[in-house]
Amino acid sequence: MEARLRNGGPWFLLAAGALGLSALFAVALVVARTPLFGLSGGTFRTALVLHVDLAVVVWFLAVAAGVWGMAAGSRSAPALRAAFGMAAAGVAVMLLSPMLMSGPPVLANYMPVLDSAVFLGGLALFAVGVVLAALAGALALPRREAPPWQVTAWLAALVLLLAAGELSFALWRAPAVAGGVPLTLDDRLWAAGHTLQLAHVLLMMGAWTVLGEAALAASPSRRWLRPLLGAAALPALASLWLSIAEPVGSFAHRQGYTELMRWGIWPAAALLGAVLLAGIVRRWRAGTATLEEAGLALSIMLFATGCLVGAGIRGESTAVPAHYHGTVGAVTLAYLLWGGRLVAATALAGGRRRLLLPLAYGLGIVLLVAGLAWWGSLGVPRKATHAEIALGGFSYYAAMGMAGGGGFTALSAVLLFVGDLARRLLLRPRPGGRADVRPLAVALTALVVIGGGWLLNGVDAGAPVTGRPAAAHVAEKKKAEIDARFAQGVVMLHSRQYDFALAAFHRVLELAPEMPEAHVNAGFALLGLKDYGAARDFFESASELRREQANAYYGLAVALEGLHDLPGALGAMRTYLHRAPANDPYRVKAESALWEWQAQLDRQRGGTSR
Amino acid sequence: MSVADSAIGSRSAGVRLLRLAGSLKFALINLAALFVGVCVAYLSDSRTVWALVVPLASSAVNLLAAMLTNAVFRRQLPLLVFHLALLAVIVLVALGRLTYLKGAAEVVDGGSFDGVLATREAGPFHGDAIAALSFASHGFTIDYAPGIRRGATRNEVAFRNAAGRLETRIIGDQQPLVLAGYRFYTSHNKGFAPTFVWHPAAGGVPQLGAVHLPAYPLHEYRQAREWVIPGTATVVWTMLQFQEIILDPDKADQFKLPGEHDLVVRIGEQRWQLQPGMSVSLPAGRLEYVGLRGWMGYTVFYDWTIPWLLAAALAAAFSLGWHYWRKFAARPWNREQDDGTTA
Amino acid sequence: MEQLLELKLLWAALVAYVLCGSLAIVGVVLRKRPERSVLALLLLGLALHTASIAVRWDRLGHGPFITMFEILSSNIWSLMLAFTIAYWRIAAIRASAAVVMPILFIMMGWLMMTSPGEGHFPPTYHTVWLFIHIGFGKVFLGAALVAVGLAGAILLRRTARGAAWFQRLPADARLDELAYRCMALGFIFETLMLIAGAIWAQDAWGRYWAWDPLETWAFITWLALGISLHARVTFRLSPRTGALMVLAVFAVAFLTFFGVPFVSTSPHKGAV
User: Fold this and answer.
1) ipTM more than 0.85?
2) Mutation site, C94, C187, C194, C203, interface B, largest B CB count within 10 A
């Protein structure tokens, strides 16, 4: 046991750390939604990316790697150490990346990323480490009498390698365009993202068999278990076939994996869960059930709830986060309980806390899922702020309270669990006396200063306010403002600040929509910005408002030339010359433009001139 | 003495030095030196003064040495976190002083800031990211309470936000415009800017420019400035004259541009009195007076360490609170104690 | 006239305070224990004083933060509040009211000499940080005041008469320990006050620290307090030395809050 733990231990610690950090980012997300500490959109989405990736990528896969480490023999130890080093380095790079190189958050399904070389490099490094661990796990063929978790571990390793293959193919070999539409990151991650979920479910089932040993022992026969576990991995074959048969990004590809998720991933787990639940109920009636088994039952029910909510998803309502928080929560709870068991065997044992905190987490997630699902049934949309949702009433707020309370409980439980683990680890008593707090103090201070500073850096200075100051509502003030803005726009046109000029003239038009001069000047600003189509519209409006607005025709001519409509341009310029006063300084330019365009037109028509 | 002995001897001397450097008495000496340094900084003109830097650096050394040698820090987590946070504050302040920027700029209504500062004071390692920044001012209003006491300033500005879209915002007083970490605050410096268009005789592009007269009402009786027409050597002296009372001390008022006014322009021996629309013909070209606008002065501030400094300072305050809470809750103050130590 | 109501309420409050303080001093000198009455008068005074401040706030549209009159009044209010809480919760130290109240008498006398006129509320004061910064400062000063009462008792006990007056108070070492705890609490709140002040200053004046007189003196107070706390853990100090340090720190703090803003002409007073 000790030897196994030595292989898997570092991975489990990495996983726990990632889980704790993910919880901290979740707290940041919640804080960001309160009006007092509104974070800028960029910081919010970065925190979101890190929360998701640290949870479903690092936490899940690090636990998986730890399990493979436990299953693998001592011969794999050096390779596993190297793999761990890469994975840990990758996670560190990912965490530091927002401060080293800013990258816009890309919120792809299953694996959102920050689009910066540093972040993606860290993620890739982590992935390589995990794949190496999976190799070690795949090479550790389970013997006949091996416990079920080793069977699922082996199957999961194979599935992960399949996912890695699908991902590599999608990233480097798939054509860039499918059906006339360029492939998005979401398209490329689609196959691997779905296949990965199968690996997580398999490992969760393995955790269930460990936690439910006694419950299984009570069942009449267990010869069905291994075939069931094997059957659980069958959807991987379907995935393999899909990735070969259908091109990435095609409708069939997307639909195929969605259907695989809908029908293939859960049946075996559901069956196993049902048998385990029956066993637990039997033990409970007999009075021999343990707290740990209560946790197992909670995990099973969370998984079932998550799947059921998933079946009920109609559109992009909050039923979607309800679904995945349910299934993710089930896996996390199973891992936390299993981890607690492993920790109990070491010097880091934590007493009842190792059971109570995961249970609290599970209950919190149940409330969160229930609240989000309730909202979903009310039709509340995803990713909308509080102010944007027009609903109110008891159900809305009750559901919000439920989701909020549940989330708070779950986060607190996770933070306490991980914090306790960290404390025990860093405060291990030294030989000859008490623990040395210095490493923990340094870690804590660094976390608070760097993390707190990053969050504070993202606080938005103030909401943009457009429109006039509240005091100016009188008509004469309006005229004064029109004059002032118009004059400013002219200044900006002169100094070639075309976009500021456009903004100024837009404001004038808001206040005086029928002013031809404002239309004309807006048109000139757009000409400066080379937006010929929009410019043409403004010049046309100006000339409609006032037929004698000579410079509108001048501008229109330039715009039409920009749109390659030479006959139109010629016509407009002639109109300008017809209407413009004799001493207009632009007559000369107009006449030379006419001459040049006519020559161009003649050339286009094959040289036949009048 | 053998080599091993002398090695041990030197090592223990090193340890002794470290212990001394980390001692409480040295901490007290540093605090007292800092006290003196603060007084010196207060009385002197420059901000970063050796009298401050030396005790702060020495305190940093003291903290590090204490962390390595002091037995109390090995056992008391919150106390150590407090001192580490203080160390972080010292380091961040130092970094901030190396990279900060303070400056001022003036922007006319309808004009834009184009990356050039009128005054600039910066740390040695400050880059020139400000050259790439720009925003436009759409004019401002300033309320005044009776007695010419300045109230709220509202200045509408336009800029490109992080997503590249044009955005307008009202800033003023405590609401700065923050672009790439640079904070632009409206200031009490503002005034009138007669605007001219210069038409060069050689037929070049007409240039529009605004002359920023001295701040109003600070320099109420000195609304004049001497300036040079760009591209020429012609020196122009311009003065604004008006009868209107801009800020009435007897009532609540607002800063506004004078309506009826005269613009006196003097070039060499000649003198003109211009109204908007009038021009002055010179050999080099025609100077046309277009009208009066306002200009707003901005103070600019940049210091990237501020959020981290705040986090560190708050960490210090809360960890100290945690330390004292634990310490004082452990023993009631009114109970007899046997040894009297209060570490 | 509303100003008349506000002044009447203030007068009534001050009368209550003076009665209360006199009662406390007399009680200590004559070795009686009029604690119930003292507490009742404290609460009465506070209630009247709160009403006076509220009336003025309502009339002017802003809180007591500008003129010397307003600052003295609001500080007397918060110091009284802090001491009342200590008086109520820590019965053992009630006799120290005989030390604390005279200090407040001096402040009240000063208050009576200042003009109750109105000041201009600067635009930089329209922020929540005003309340946060000043709130933290008030907690700091309140804690320091309680400590001063204890320190005064320790020092007065050196005389035979003083020892007789304060015989009901716990031993010097205990008083010193409580004073230390009060100063420690004050230190934390002064730290928070400086932080809140820097946050306010950043957007009010465009920089978070510029060594202007009030900032500098506040930091000097912080350093003095830090030195005194550090000295306590570096040396074994007698209660008398500890008491002297408490008084010294309070003197610096008093100078900072009541001297500097009205001696200097820099923007910290409220910009034009």
Assistant:
1) yes
2) C203
